[in-house]
Each structure stands twice: as C-alpha cells, then as structure tokens.
# Entry
Amino acid sequence: MTGLPAAANFVTGAGGTWTQTFQMDGVDITGLDWEFVIRPQAVDTAQPPLVKVTPTETAQGRIIVDTVAGTVQVILTPAATGPLGKGARPYALWSNPGLPTAIPWCAGIFNTTLVPAP
# Structure
C-alpha cells in the first residue's frame, strides 16, 4: 500500500451536508475500523478534533463502509460543517486509528466557505 495517504482537497459550504465516497480498489477493507477527522493543524493531536466521524452515527455524521463494493463513504452534517465557519484545515481518513495497524488512506485540506442565506 505504498503511496498512502492519497492526497485530495475538498470544498464545501459551512453549515451544509458534505458526502464523499472513497473507492478502495483491490484492498480488502473487511474488519477495519474507520475514522474521519478535521483538525486545526496537521500536528494537532488534541482530543476531540474539530470534527470526528466513525461508523457510529453522531450529530456530526457517520461513515458507511461497503466491503463488497470496497467503498468508504463519509457523511458530515451541518452540525459538523457549521461550526467550522470559513477556513481551510487539514483532514484525514484513517483505518484502525490509534492502533499499530493505523493507516491514513487519504489526507489533505478541507476548505469551508461561507454561503449567503437565501
């Protein structure tokens, strides 16, 4: 699994729902624990991060894993993106976070923009 983490940057409106599906071609993702985090800085390890979602649904969202299709879908709710306001922050999608087998699959900048009210 060389070349990890894959690099990708994302943009969404603060206070909106954000969904992204990550395709894990040729990799068995069965039994992996998943976590998507957004932090103020890449070196920040403070708990909790600004945003943290796992397969367990919370007010911030959840992760849906489809082992047959080999996909990991991250869903962030307005409760996750709203407090971010305007700004660019590092994010990462991890499997088995906090364990010796932890792998960062994708990382980059998560940019939130302000969207005018209708």
The CA atoms of residues 42 and 90 lie 6 Å apart. Residues 8-109 form a domain with the Immunoglobulin-like fold (CATH 2.60.40.10).
